[in-house]
Amino acid sequence: MEPNKKTKERPFYEAPSNLPTSSKIINEARTSLRSLKTKRPFTPRDENRTLFGPSSSRAPENRPPSAFSLGARHFDGSDSRPVSGTRLTPLEHTRVHGPLIEDKTSSIHTPKPPLVGDFEGQVLPPKPPSDPNRPVSRKGSGHGRSRLQHSNSVDSFSTAGEVTGRSRTGSIGEECTIKETNSTDRPRRVHSGPKERTENVSVEERGVGDGKECPPRLASAAAVRSPPTSASKDGESRAGSGGSKRSPGDAAETPEEKFFYTQHIGPLVEEMLCLSKKKDTERISELADSLYIILHRENLLGRNCKKRSHILKTVFKLLDAEEPKVLLQLAKIILALKVSGNNLTNVCKLVFKVSRNEKNDQEFMEGNVLDHLVETIESLDHTSSAEALVYCVGSLKFLSGNMSLAKLLVKKGGVEALSRLLTAGNRSNTENNKASEQFGNILVQLTAALRNLADVSSSREKFLSGGVVEGLCKVMEFYAQDSDIMLNSSRTFSKLTLHTDCCNALSEQRGCFKSFLHLLNKHLHKEDLIVRVCFVLGNLTAKNEFARSELFQEPKSLDTLLSVFKTYLEKGIKTTEKSNEGEDAKEIREVSKYEDVLIKVVRVIANLSISEDIGPFIASSQPCLHLLLNVLDNKDESSSEELVLNIMATINNLSFYPVKTSAIMAKPILVAESLFHIMKLVLTQNMEAMIECARVFGNLTRQKTVRDYLYKKKICEVMITLLDSGSREVVYVACGVLINMMADEEKRPVLKREGGVNKLLEVLRDFGKTDWQLASMVCQVLWNYSGKINSANACFGDPQAQELSELLVEMLDEEAAMDVSVNDEMEEEVRCIVHDMWKADFCPVASQLLHRIDSHQSKFEPLEPPP
After folding, report:
1. Do 720 and 676 meet the contact criterion of CB atoms below 8 Å apart?
2. Separation of first and last alpha carbons in the chain
């Protein structure tokens, strides 16, 4: 059957529409569409550990201070103030209507009905102080006052008929033991305000703290009426709110508890009080460690210890010590005893103060103070304990900057604790439909701590399972205007999205792409934030088609990316001009920052263009092409290598789509000129840049005008030279350009003249049997080259034609070909792919080329036509 004369010969660079190959996707990925890689933006290490950095957007008056004075005087010995910090309302003051009588059905004493003349000589009780924590004056005496017999030691207890009250001299909360001297005379109390009246000798009067032996405690006081008490929200008894609930410390101690305290805890406490805070730090450290061990062993931590207030008062008095190790041991005891209110805030400040100096990091490695920090974060409410959380989480921020401590924190549940705090704050913001400024201060520390913990490889699973990714997306919605929080969040995402599972998890978060684009618009001129957001978007779009679609479908997404592109290109050009004039080091650094943004945003555009649905739209964007070529015209490849390579890769991806609206196909010569200029500069210096140029030329040379332009620029000679490179990828892209160039008859002689046929045979012999895609490309070059063949020997050369024929016969033998191509170590799936490439890519063109050579074999070369 004669071939249809009307059928036009089809060059191999045009894929047959009716014969799709199974390796088409692989082939296209190798020759054209590619995602780009880049390094993560450099994150400078915080030289000075501060609560809020010097570049913070927060005004000093709207944030807790990083520096403060702190000592023993700042701690309240009673630890009885409510967590909220609100002061208790004083009791109303009324006249006492006669002497008190005992209500036998209740422990509360009630007044007798007034008798005629009973008001004579009565006076009002003293007015309570405005500060409920200030002791009431001990002048005078009330009704029913009885004398009390005190034990000789602060740690001893009375036995029969004793009741436990609160000493109202000195600091509130110190427990004292009062004992009735007459069993028939029960202690009676008067309405004297929120403070009990008791006589007590201060610690200083007893000589404690001066290094001398502590004398027995001497004091006498009247038994007075206890003020009403109530439990605070954390369970500690509070004065002035009713008397239905009491803390464990208010209950009477058993003889066994009294004996244990006297024998084991009391001596430690008393010795600690007698030591010098500056001279005896080593001994204080030993005692503090022993005290913690005993309390922990006997389950007396938290609020379980009856002498908790007395222990706390002792520890507080030692907080003027300067040794970091001692301060941390004391802070550990305070945290373990579950203080609240100002004491909680101050102990968190204390730990924060120690953690600011990285020389103290080793002290946090020892003991279990990290456990208590994590436990404190988990137990606190972000609204009522906001300031304490700022300093507590701030400490974790500093400590997690040390990789050893970061790993330890991950093991101790630091990620989970921060995640729960993050979730609680987001829930509160959602319920109130607004962002809390207080929680914002916490978030600055929290997001920075997460940023550090993300460097620990074992933390990734905890980030995913703990809802950190989802939580940070919520934070972007509420705090988009807060550049401090957004910078930390973007740094965390830039680390997490280096991993595919985290990319998938983030892409599935509803609204995350909208939030990222909003950040680009909101903080356009903050390059440290913009560069990280673009890096994250580049990671998300590198391998995930769903992410590409979601990002591009957001309104004006391409416009936003091009706005970032244009802004930082203009900044870079202006700054470069200034630096060239004065060679200012600062301006040179700024150019580097701007260029890093360009690298990241160009990468996003390149990755988006991989999508067959999105690519044609971007390829049709004239502003996008203009910006890409502008970079090539203004950037030197030697100093801006990564940026130039990314630009060329992006142009390559866009040139893959030969749509009618393509901006590249509308101006192919303009693009070819820019790329050829780059190729001349890097001809022998940068092979990677050469490959990128060749890839674009492989797409552009589908147009005859481009082939003619490049032929005049001797691009064929350059590609033939590259066949000797020894690199499979270089040879591959060089073949791609030669396939198209050999489609024109007038350009074919250059291949033989420059030794291209011999070089192609060498490539086929050296690489063909282990790279069927490359072997197919070589055959396509030779097929197009021999389009007007009359004699195989005349076309390829006598020995070359014979060698090519024998080589093709061998490579088309399936058993022989697969015996070389596959090996026993290959997985079955890989073996199938290799066989598929051989059969679908190589065999069709190789068999036709072999048939052409065999059908034109002749020992005689045709005569040259007469002149």
Report:
1. no
2. 37
Residue-wise pLDDT for 264-277, tens only, equals 898 998 898 888 77
Calculate mean pLDDT across residues 543-547: 92
Torsion of Cα atoms, 256 then 258 then 263 then 269, to 10°:
140
Residue 81: how many other CB atoms lie within 10 Å: 23
Q: What tokens appear for 736 in the block?
A: 């791609």
CB 31 within 8 A of CB 736: yes
Three-class secondary structure of residue 179 per DSSP: strand
Q: Where are the beta strands (DSSP E) in 107-169?
A: 109-111, 162-166
In whole angstroms, what is the distance from residue 744 CA to residue 427 CA? 68
Residue 670 has a pLDDT of 94
Q: Could you tell me which residue, 146 or 624, shows the higher pLDDT?
A: 624
Name the percent of the chain in helix, strand, coil, to the closest 5. 55, 5, 40
Q: Is the dihedral of CA 747, 753, 757, 762 positive or negative?
A: negative
pLDDT given at position 514:
97
pLDDT tens column, 377-424: 999 999 999 999 999 999 999 999 999 999 999 999 999 999 999 999
CB atoms within 10 A of CB 705: 12
Mapped onto helix, strand or coil, the DSSP state of residue 729 is helix
Segment 484-530, tens digit of pLDDT: 999 999 999 999 999 999 999 999 998 999 999 999 999 999 999 99
Helices (H) and strands (E) in the chain, counts: 39, 6
The tokens describing 183, both together, are 């069993």
pLDDT band, very low/low/confident/very high, at 751 (cuts 50, 70, 90): very high
Rg, C-alpha atoms of the chain: 42
- Tokens (6 digits) for 120: 């004579």
Is residue 756 within 8 Å of residue 738, measured between CB atoms?
yes
Residue corresponding to tokens 């005692």: 287
Inter-residue contact 287 to 333 (CB < 8 Å) = no
Mean pLDDT of the 125-138 span: 46
Name which residue leads in pLDDT, 222 or 182: 182
Tokens of 779: 């055959």
Q: State the average pLDDT over residues 304-310.
A: 86
In the predicted structure, residue 182 carries a pLDDT above the cut 50: no
Separation CA 296–CA 337 (nearest Å): 10
What tens digit of pLDDT does each residue of 816-848 get? Answer: 888 877 766 778 888 888 889 999 999 999 999
pLDDT of residue 859: 53
List Cβ neighbours of 858 (8 Å cut-off, separation of 6 or more): 791, 792, 793
Residue 16: strand, helix, or coil? coil
Q: How far apart are CA 221 and CA 219, in angstroms?
A: 7
Distance CA 794, CA 796 (A): 6
> What is the rounded CA–CA span in Å between residue 818 and residue 166?
92
- Mutual orientation of helices 687-700 and 641-655 as an angle, nearest 10°? 20
Whether domain 714-855 has CATH 1.25.10: the reply is yes
Here the tokens at position 38 are 């880049």
Residue located via tokens 């006498």:
220
Residue whose C-alpha is closest to residue 363's, from 416, 302, 404, 412: 404
Q: What is the pTM of this model?
A: 0.73
Give the containing element (helix H, strand E) for 449. helix 437-453
d(CA 318, CA 268): 13
Closest by CA to 387, choosing from 43, 732, 83, 705, is 83
Residue with tokens 């198209």: 740
Domain ranges for the chain, please list them: 714-855
Say if residues 267 and 290 touch (Cβ distance below 8 Å): no
Tell me the residue length of the chain: 867
Instruction: Report the half-sphere exposure of 789 (CA within 13 A, side-chain side).
Output: 25
Among residues 760, 729, 725, the alpha carbon closest in space to that of 742 is found at 760
Let me know the angle formed at the C-alpha of 492 by 488 and 493, rounded to the nearest 5 degrees.
120
